Amino acid sequence: MESVKLVSSPASLISHRFGAAASETRSVSPSPSLPPISREQALLESFFHALSQFAFDKAKDQVEKEKETKRLPLVSSTPWSSLLITLSRLALAEKMYFSLPFIAKKFFRKDSVRDSFKALIIDFKRIEESTHSSSSTGSPLEGSLLAELCRHLCQFSQARQELIDFYESMAIMGSSSNVNYSDLSNMIDEICRRHNKGFHHPILDSLKSCFSFEVDILCNLLKAQCDMADWKFLSSLLHLHESHVKLSSWCQFLPPVELSASLTLKKSLFGSTPKKHLEAPFLYQWLGKLQDALVSKFTLYFYQILSRQTTPVDMKPLTARASIDYIGRITAFIRRSDAFSVCMLLDTHQLEQYQGHGYHLPHDIKEKPSGLGAFPAVFSFPGDQPVDHWPNIVSILLDRVNELNSMEKIVYFFDIRVQSTYFLTRVDPRMTVVVIFNSKRSEKDSFVTSFLTETATLIRNTKIFAMLKQGGKS
Fold first, then answer.
1. Do residues 268 and 295 touch, judged by C-beta distance below 8 A?
2. Segment 440-459, tens digit of pLDDT
3. Dihedral (C-alpha) 370, 372, 377, 382: value to the nearest 10 degrees?
């Protein structure tokens, strides 16, 4: 929460300073504890703060009004007037960026968002160069401060281009049933590393905080996904908590009146996003949906350890609060299909430090499981792992591993000896969902195959990734 305080405090300062400086007929003495700043600097601080609040039209109007008030020419004649024109286009580019139109219908129209940021880089560099040769003194910012600001805005525009590439890669990978989350995680980590110390000018504090929220949330969500795929309880929980905190903090960046009127923040990590949504951009809402989907996945993957913390009666409403109630879906499926059990099997081969359910002390090293023990049931419902069926399940998994690795097949097997039917499908590289029937069932049973296909799609977050291609409403 410290980051919010650091930003919200200057926000009130910006409002005070710019409001006081906006009138040319009256002057307000600055606070004794604050150094005086120019009217132009107050305008810039207010502009970038508005961008950080997703108030793109408001930010654009501010610089447009400044041009009209000062009767600046439409064609740039000084570095200051050039900057105002370019900032107006930056506000429009940011508005488009947060609706992700560069993914939707990418091959059917010009990539205007990417082109906008390319043009902004060229213009900011041109303004920076002109400040060194210009003899105009029409603005207190014309000189080293203006040049420095443009240099930092070039860095910001470059970072935006890299994030556009990242979201496009994410959308492409999301269309596959076998998403390489590690590659995506490494990509966003590299963007974080490259721009961690970039565009840090004090006037851009609000903009830098907004950028940091976005990339930090992405980093934590993708790391949580990778950790869950390797069944790491504590690290995936910590990453989910961190992304939840940053989403909540980013939301508090918005104007207090709008926030209290239309949105109630989630105090708990476990629970779906409130039904009443703030008029936030598509990208912000999409990050919230990905967060909710991963929290739901966490409740399934670690259901056994979570259920130990409360009673079965209290656990049911807790899982029902998740955006995807996996336990409710499985319960309904078993009731309607008369399935004996639904399990999730983990392949522990080449998995570092597998120690079983829950958190374990770092020095509590256990012997690596082997044989049937190398394929434990991390989830089983209803009841415990069906040990009598486990040799059959592991044998099927090993015999049909290539089909399962395709991440698209549903493997069917009927054991005539024990009159049991097994359906298996791979949902994560190490995770396989198994449905067991104590009777013969058809391989083409549509109710069973639909349940497994839909469950795999939800667990892989395919639908969430597909939303990227839809983009925000224009």
1. no
2. 999 999 999 999 999 999 99
3. -150
